[in-house]
Specification:
The chain contains 12 helices and 41 strands. By secondary structure, the protein is α+β, with helices and mostly antiparallel strands. A hairpin with a 5-residue loop joins β26 and β27. It starts with about 25 loop residues before the first strand and ends with a strand.
């Protein structure tokens, strides 16, 4: 076949220095350029005697053009009416006598810079070809012209830098959405086309002799993929069109992964599903539909009543494109019948989640409705979590305000009221994932108010638990950092560890592989000398051993949980809790110079303190009755004076900065 009579200009070589100095307007000169018809650009037209003419189109807006190796400027293109030529005007510093060289690149979007006097250019990796031509942005042309003296108009003969391909897909009966070509290395293209015939593309010149080409065709049903081997001597050459066909009749087929999930829930399902769409996308699901029937604090009893009565009392949240939408006054049955659901989850309100007698007869009513209206859906039980240890939730006293007691009660209810039924496909053990996570260095800090999940850690862990239970795949490649929040690699690893262990053992707590940075106080003999120098007889005291958590601190105004992930956590180490029995009146605190501590206090470990004590650098302090007045527990935040950030080595010094001497009986 005959191709266009075009010469290949491999690169535009420039010499001389590039100046970025701003030129006064009075010293600037305007030059007009004319792109001649023979080798102009942007779209192929119908072949004439085997030659594919190229024309300038109305979409061609800019070219890059330089004078004598200077910094290129951008010029707007004005195509002629017939498209066979185009004009553009550029302004340069005043041009003197002598020889001058103009170099041009079209389109301007292909320009990638100048290195060592050579222009760099690129071809878009995503292209939108037409039925008769490549994507205009993928047709890269260059031109150069030399003039004698300052010209008024320069004629430019453009030549092709890109090579072209045109291929067809045979034996494929499907609605095409896009085609991807992988030539190996960095040479990969995605072609946005619905055609199986004459699929055009532009590429940098490439030798493909004996090499493989990978083809992936995305369709409405899934992805077809196969590879072909180019014959020896095959190459994509600048300014030439290489044609080939690909037989897809024996291509491998990977159906589209789709999933639809409906939650009959409350704010805890909002927490668990907030980041789920993004995680499902990363796991390879292409079509996702999430629905959440929400009423704040909704119990099984209320859900059952709404379903039986057809009450349109729900806020219905849906997500099919990565963002949540809201429909008000929705009834549950209509939502169940609105589509073919793959999964439907149910749950008890958090305050009743550990009370087995609160489940029936309401759970049976809900399950029967799901069986009727979503007969092919897998039924999931969303096992929610115990409250934070210092939670002020009004229902926490049902469990004695003891977190592990609440967790165990939830597990018992799941065993005796959910799994015993035999009609749930599986449990999503979010409660276990959260309890596992609390054994890590993150600690009991995964809620935002004592019971709802925190935006940065808690919601991440619960959404990941849903993903793991539904998909079952590995979590290593899932980026779980939520937009707008910070997350360390260690935090991400601890979350994934907690979820994986809950997946393996859904109804029991497993210790984290990322435990708190727990260590023990180290005695410093010099502090015993300080005790003696302050008038105390060391023989009448014994030094009290105690544990510390490095990179952590308490804030008693927020409760008794340890903070380990704040930006200033690396300033502190936190001691264990002390009661009046372990730290009696008459004990003496001895502090090393250059250090400080804050003696936090609580009336009980789940309480918040309104009058948080300040930091002190008092070197010797004797504990009195008034120091203990109104407090049942004390603990110390240790830091260097002035609260500087500490290196790992400096952090270790906090182990020996405070000695506690208790009276000998």
């Amino acid at each position: 076949m005959k191709h266009g009579p075009i010469a290949f200009l491999a690169a535009l070589l420039l010499s001389g220095a590039v100046s970025c100095e701003r030129i006064p307007e009075s010293r600037m000169q305007e030059v007009r350029f004319l792109a001649l018809p023979a080798e102009t650009r942007t779209a192929f037209t119908a072949p004439e005697d085997g030659v594919y003419p190229v024309i300038w189109t109305s979409g061609d807006r800019n070219v890059k053009i330089s004078l004598d190796a200077g910094t290129p400027v951008q010029a707007a293109v004005r195509p002629a009416a017939d498209g066979k030529s185009a004009r553009f005007t550029a302004t340069f510093p005043a041009i003197g006598s002598g020889s001058h060289t103009f170099c041009a690149l079209s389109p301007a979007s292909a320009y990638a810079g100048i290195t060592d006097g050579q222009w760099s250019w690129s071809v878009p990796t995503t292209q939108s070809p037409t039925a008769t031509s490549v994507d205009p942005a993928a047709m890269v042309l260059s031109a150069s012209a030399t003039t004698d003296g300052p010209p008024e108009e320069v004629q430019l003969h453009f030549t092709h830098l890109t090579a072209y391909g045109c291929f067809s897909l045979q034996g494929l009966d499907a609605s095409i959405q896009s085609v991807s070509l992988d030539f190996g290395g960095e040479d990969a293209l995605t072609l946005q086309t619905s055609s199986s015939e004459d699929i055009w593309f532009g590429i940098k010149p490439l030798d493909v002799s004996g090499k493989e080409l990978g083809i992936r065709v995305k369709t409405d049903a899934g992805t077809y993929s196969r590879s072909i081997t180019f014959p020896e001597g095959k190459a994509f050459e600048a300014g030439k069109i290489a044609r080939f066909a690909v037989d897809m009749s024996d291509a491998a087929f990977d159906p589209i992964r789709s999933v639809s999930i409906l939650a009959i829930g409350n704010s805890f399902s909002v927490d668990a599903m907030q980041y789920l769409y993004g995680y499902l996308k990363q796991a390879g699901y292409e079509e996702i539909f999430l629905g959440n029937l929400y009423i704040g604090g909704c119990s099984l009893e209320k859900h059952a009543g709404n379903i039986t009565g057809g009450t349109a009392a729900y806020t219905y949240y849906t997500n099919s494109k990565g963002t949540w939408s809201t429909v008000n006054s929705q009834d549950a049955v209509s939502a169940m019948k609105s589509r073919k659901w793959d999964y439907v989850s149910m749950q008890q309100a958090s305050d009743w989640s550990g009370v087995p007698d609160s489940y029936e007869p309401y759970l049976s009513t809900i399950v029967n409705a799901v069986k009727t209206h979503c007969p092919e859906a897998k039924r999931m039980w969303h096992m929610t979590w115990a409250y934070q240890a210092n939670s002020t939730h009004g229902s926490f006293p049902k469990y004695g305000c003891v977190q592990i007691r609440m967790y165990n009660a939830i597990v018992d209810a799941v065993r005796t009221r959910v799994l015993s039924r035999g009609d749930f496909d599986f449990v999503i053990p979010c409660g276990t994932a959260i309890q596992n996570l609390r054994t890590s260095f993150i600690g009991d800090t995964v809620t935002r108010d004592g019971y709802h999940m925190s935006y940065d850690i808690g919601r991440v862990a619960t959404a990941l638990m849903w993903l793991k239970q539904i998909d079952g795949g590995p979590l290593e490649g899932i980026d779980i950092k939520p937009a707008g929040y910070s997350q360390t690699q260690q935090q991400a690893a601890a979350i994934k560890d907690a979820v994986e262990k809950a997946y393996t053992k859904p109804l029991e707590v497993t210790e984290s592989a990322y435990p708190p940075d727990l260590t023990w106080h180290e005695s410093d003999p010099a502090l015993q000398q300080v005790l003696s120098g302050a008038g105390y007889d060391p023989a009448r005291y014994r030094e009290l051993p105690y544990s510390l958590t490095l990179h952590a601190f308490y804030n008693s105004t927020g409760g008794s949980g340890l903070t380990t992930t704040a930006s200033n956590s690396d300033e502190f180490a936190a001691t264990q809790f002390f009661s009046k029995e372990t730290l009696p009146v008459g004990s003496v605190l001895v502090l090393k110079e250059g250090y400080q501590y804050r003696p936090e206090k609580w009336t009980r470990l789940s309480a918040k303190t309104s009058d948080r004590p300040g930091q002190t650098q008092v070197q010797v302090f004797a504990i009195t009755e008034s120091w203990w007045s109104g407090s049942a527990y004390r603990a110390f935040n240790l830091s260097k004076a002035g609260n500087p950030h500490l290196t790992d080595a400096e952090m270790q010094s906090l182990r020996s900065c405070l000695s506690i001497f208790v009276p000998v009986d």
